[in-house]
Amino acid sequence: MIDALLRQFGLRTGRFTSPHLHSMRERICFDGRSIDEARFLATYDEIAPYLDLVDARNEVPLSFFEVLTGMAFAAFADAPVDATIVEVGIGGTWDSTNVADAQVAVVTPIAIDHERFLGHTISEIAGEKAGIIKHGSYGVLAQQPVDAADVLLARSVEVDALVAREGLEFGVQSRSLAVGGQVLTLRGLAGEYGDIFLPLLGAHQAHNAVCALVAVEAFLGGSHEQRAMLDLDLVRAGFAAVTSPGRLEVVRSSPTVLLDAAHNPGGAVATAQAIQDDYNFTRLVGVVSVMADKDARGILEPFERVFAEVVITQANTSRAMAVDDLASAAIDVFGEDRVEVVRRLDDALDSAVALAEENSDHLGGSGVLVTGSIYTVAEARTLLGGGAV
Questions:
Q1: Would you tell me the crossing angle of helices 345-357 and 374-383 to the nearest 10 degrees?
Q2: Is the dihedral of CA 371, 376, 377, 380 positive or negative?
Q3: Is residue 288 within 8 Å of 308, Cβ to Cβ?
Q4: Which of 186, 282, 338, 363 stands the most exposed, by the fewest C-beta atoms within 10 Å?
């Protein structure tokens, strides 16, 4: 969303995100488009001697993600770009992306994930996330658990950063459903922005939108005291152009098949709530595969109230949780009579569609939601004919 807005205001953007759905080139984007193959290879060749030098001097070699981070920064410098939008890989303080001293740091809602690296409590995780707020920067904080907010605000004071908090300095004023998305009224730092069409569903996406808006206001708007409203037409055009492949993405109709890459309990809660609020399914069947290092039960539990039945499967990756282990967790949550086990994802999709159509009124009320992991969604997207993102 930040990328789309900045481009509407005439800036050339570089964007670094992770992971990818289909091609690792998706992680490095210029003006909203993936880096092309020739440029990707040339960038690697450019930094390869430095990779060898660093690896020779250190006991632990550079990781895959660290190398891609270096490639992204090298590519953005060579372009050059006017602004970069950099998504942290894991945490913040010790993430390789944090070599950047960003003018604006955005922290979306913090929940439990990556406990092995970040800690087991909200406060510990918030401490790691807070590391992206640098001296003199502008912190944009989504609504947070109290424990997280305390840590983030303490960090902001420590580094003399300005801060804007959702629910106080900015927020979502209203949202209503529309064909293909939702219409929002957002209160930014400088005033109210109305009649904004966002082609994504879910209350969480409305909250993402206002954080993106405020980040752009902070980046473009001058001093805090003199900040002026952004051009409303450009804001509307930016949000209208937003896409989010694999996030409540419709890839088939009759029955509707949705893909959502919720891969932790917090993401599952947001997705399940969006299904309840913004969709009108009379029968929804889940297809779920999660990764072995994730909280499977925590991912499954929010969907208990929205799935009529769930098909448990295993994505085609060595990281996937064994289907029998995931099935055991699913039976605990849903009960044995609501769980079907299908070991291959392609067969699982067929089974879920058949289940969705059983006893359906054939008036568009049945559907399938594929979720649990970005790997799962990527594989399903390919099987269902999804194109490049």
A1: 80
A2: negative
A3: no
A4: 363
